[in-house]
Amino acid sequence: MPINAYSIVEEFKVSYKHQVVFTENIFDVRNPLLATTIQELCRNERTKIFIVIDAPLLEAIPILQSQIDEYFTHHEASLQMTACWSLPGGEQLKNHAEYLQNLYTEIDKHDLCRHSCILAIGGGALLDVVGYAAATSHRGIRHIRLPTTSLSQGDGGCGVKNSVNFATKKNFLGTFTPPHAVLNDLNFLNALPQAQLIDGYIEAVKVALIKDADFFRTIERQADALVARDPKAIAQVIQTSARHHILHITRNGDPFELTTSRPLDFGHWAAHKLEAISDFTLSHGQAVAIGIALDSIYSQRTGFLHENQLERILNLIEALGFKCFHTTLSQRIKNGDHLIVKGLEEFRQHLGGQLTIPLVRDIGAQFEVHEMDIGILEDCIDQLKQRTFNPVE
């Protein structure tokens, strides 16, 4: 007997505007960018603004708080700053649920609604947590990002994802919720310590490896200038990295990652596991550098990448100030297997569906595989260990 069914099926689309702007001195009262962006977004007579900012940033730039206060006082006719609330920076924000819970409490205390605006000022971890809270409070409060690190300005802060960690798994809880605007003030990068500044360079290397051989050559030529903190070199590399990431998200046909293809995650299956193994003492940038080195060697050992190209990749990673090996990469479990290998299944679970790992057949040319030979992978780990005489401890 046929089953009677009454169906209503309608297809609808939601249009998003993904706006990423680079500027300088964003809290100078003579720079109208932030005020006009909020006014265009909210279109209220006087919009409530709740600011969440990285505490280490306030310490690194002592005058920043007074600049923020002065800016919102100058624009008080249209903008109402309800509070400027600080959170500690770094991955600990995403690991400990109390930070997220406290953020929800603050959002409720200040009576923020879907017509308010949450302004997140900080590095990638803070942007992730604040974005997740904004996306899930009242099913979505307007949200603007002000990334303050090279990593967040050139990659993570320009994306459409928000997340927190759970059960030692990176980004286990999260949403795909585009920010209403991303405003990058390049002057914030001046306050970064060297180890944090170079983190953004590796994501630029990553996107160059999978998309743009000319960009890779540019980074090679400017490696010394980047390490020396040359402002023009930094601006060029971070802006080009951001452009590639944004174009991939908006023009690749899969902004919310419904398929299993993740070219922007080149080197990241191992990086995410390395961060967890190290109890997140290893920075994301350093972990990605090792992950790129590992997958590049695997590409070469499986016959896809020429040895000369591999050497260029490894040399550039090291020239920018990264190590290609960390002691946790060799860590083994009781049966003798490398612990890092568990990252493959965790990566598959996180993405869903078939395991899909990006590799490179040439600089600027990416392809995908659906399995990795564990024996070859272990040989790649040994090769990195032998190459690096001074591993990160």
Could you characterize what this model shows?
- It contains 17 helices and ten strands.
- The protein has 393 residues and is an alpha/beta fold.
- It has two domains: 20-191, Rossmann fold, CATH 3.40.50; 195-387, Dehydroquinate synthase-like, alpha domain (Up-down Bundle).
- A six-stranded parallel β-sheet has the order 1-8-5-4-2-3. A two-stranded antiparallel ribbon has the order 6-7.
- Strand 9 (357-362) and strand 10 form a beta hairpin.
- It is globular and about 65 Å long.
**Helix fraction bin:** 40-55%
What is the CATH third-level topology name of the largest domain? Dehydroquinate synthase-like, alpha domain
Rg over alpha carbons: 22 Å
CATH class of the largest domain: Mainly Alpha
Mean residue pLDDT: 92
Number of DSSP helices?
17
- Overall structural class, as computed from helix and strand content, comes to alpha/beta
What coarse outline follows from CA principal-axis ratios? globular
Could you tell me how far the N terminus lies from the C terminus, measured between alpha carbons in angstroms?
68 Å
Describe the largest sheet: 6 strands, parallel
Number of domains: 2
Query: Helix-strand pattern, N to C?
Result: EHEHHEHHEHEHEEEHHHHHHHHHEEH
Strand content: 15-25%
So, CATH architecture of the largest domain? Up-down Bundle
The stretches of 5 or more residues where confidence is low (pLDDT under 50) are: none
In the sheet with the most strands, the strands line up as: 1-8-5-4-2-3
CATH superfamily of the largest domain: Dehydroquinate synthase-like - alpha domain
Number of strands: 10
